[in-house]
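Researcher: Next sequence.
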Amino acid sequence: MSAGASTPSRDGDAPPVIALADVHKRFGTVVAVERASFAVRRGEFFSILGPSGCGKTTLLRLIGGFDEPSGGYVRLDGVDVTGVPPYRRNVNTVFQHYALFPHLSVFDNVAFGPRAQGLARAEVEHRVGAMLEVVRLADCASRRPAALSGGQRQRVALARALVNFPSALLLDEPLSALDRGLRQQMQGELKRIQRELDIAFVFVTHDQEEALGMSDRLAVMRSGRVEQVGTPEEVYGAPANAFVAAFLGAANLFAVRVEARHGERVTVRLPGGRVADLPDDAATLRPGDPALVMVRPERIRLSPGDADAPVPAIAVTVVETRFQGPVRRCVLHGSHGVEIIAHVVDGIAPAELCSGTRVWVSWDPGAARLLPPDDAAGVSAPPT
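Model: Next structure:
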C-alpha cells in the first residue's frame, strides 16, 4: 500500500480509534485550538502538520489526556474520555525527548509498562522480546541508553510505548533531534513498524516533506484551526486555501477577479491582461469577486517569448535560474509585480533561460486551482 493511500477500517462498522468533535482549548485569553473536528481510523498513519505555535502539540495533548478541552469532546474507541487521565486512556505518547531510564537496560526500559501492569514474568519476556524484534534491537537488549545511537534510543522509546499494544500511538515531533540522514532512515522505520503492528499513529510535525511522504491522511493547522484534512495527494493537489497551498510546497498564487460565470466554470483575467477559464469547485464565485489562482511550480510550462502565446499565458522575464539536479529552478517576473517560480525538467534549453529573456508561462487546463482570497497569503490585490 502506498504511503498516500487511505487505510480502510479493518473492523467494518467499528468506530474510529480517535474522534474529535468541536474540540477547543483556551489558556486564559489565548485560543490554542479552535473547534477541531476529525477522526483517525484504525491502522492509519495520521499526521498533524503546521508551523510552530499553531496548536498541533496542544491538540496531541488533548488526545492523550495531558490537557482537558475547554469545549467539545474526544472519543477513543467510541468512548468519550473527557476527564479521563492519561494512564487510563488506551493511547501512549512518544515525546521529542525520549525520557528513557538511563540506569536501566534496553530490555528493562521496554519491560517497565508490562511489569507495572502486573503481568507474569513469562508474558513480560515474551512481549518485550517480540517488540525488540519488531524494532530490530534484540541484540541490544542488555545495553543501556547511553551506549546507543540516537536512532536506536528512539526505537527503544517506540518499543516501550508499543509493548502494551495501545489503540493508538501519539508522536510529538519524535524525529526533530536527529540529523537529516538518520531522520530519513527513521521515517522508513516508523512506517515499517506502524504497518507491521497495524496500530494507528498520530504524528505531529512541522516538516511538510515528512508529512507528505509518511501519512495516509493529514490535518493542516494554522493559528489553532484545522484548515484541511485529507490524503497527501488531496491536500497538495487540491488545497482548501492559499495557506495550505503555500505551506505544502511551493505554490504560485495569482490574485485575480472573476469576470464571468459559465455553469461550473468562471472567467478570470490573469496578470498581464489575458483571460482564462477555470473550474470553480466550490461554485461560490460571482462576477466581480476576488480570487486566487494556484499553480504548482512543477506544472508550469515555459515557451519562447517570440512564439505564439499559449492559452492561458502570462508574459514574464527570466530573473534567475538555478540548477538543482533533476530540475532547473527558474524565478520569473511578470507584470503587476507577479513573481512566478517554475521547475523546468526539459523543453527549454538552459541558454534560452538567461537572465532578461522574455518567455511565456502557461499550464495545462487541469493544473490550476481557483482558491478563495486570503489576506494572510501575502499576495497582492487583484487588478481592478
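Model: The first helix runs from residue 56 to 64. Residues 244-377 form a domain with the OB fold (Dihydrolipoamide Acetyltransferase, E2P) fold (CATH 2.40.50.140).
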